[in-house]
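New to this. Please check this record:
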Amino acid sequence: MKTNRFFIIVLLLSSFLGFSQKMNLQKFSVKEGLIQSTVKQIEQDDYGNLWLGTNYGLSKFNGKTFENFTTTNGLPSNEISSLLFSNDILFIGTKKGFCSYTGSKIDNRNLYKKINGNVKKILETNNILHIITTKGYYLLDISSPSFQLDSIAIPNIISQNPSDAEFDEDGNLWIS
């Protein structure tokens, strides 16, 4: 009986040891090329690149090097507030508006200039972007190359100063 207990204890202890994993963490900072060390938003594209939004611009990390973007590259503001990658396009929300990155440059099409305010959240359902800002709620249809924009009136959204939003499992949009 003692042998069975000992065997069970050894088996349990060895199973815990067998499942342990070492975390390989690397720290990146301005010294390595990151545009600023306080990262507020992270998004990964379909190519494995990490997009890092900071208060001083946007950094693209390909696993080895950083490429940085600021207002000099076309961002409406250096303060990045929301990121979403969809349909091979990185959609970028900033404190002063909305833009996108199409693989070669920042896109500031006239349609985007109709999205006013500090972009708090960008969500997507069925090729429709839901863009929540401090000035309103916008729907951007990205199903065709010529995007279509609608503005949805939400009473008191400006005075409520939204900070975040998510869809629940039933498809209801919750704005906080």
Q: What stands out?
A: The chain has a mean pLDDT of 87. Helices lie at 2-18, 157-160. The longest strand covers residues 80-86. Residues 2-18 form the longest helix (17 residues).
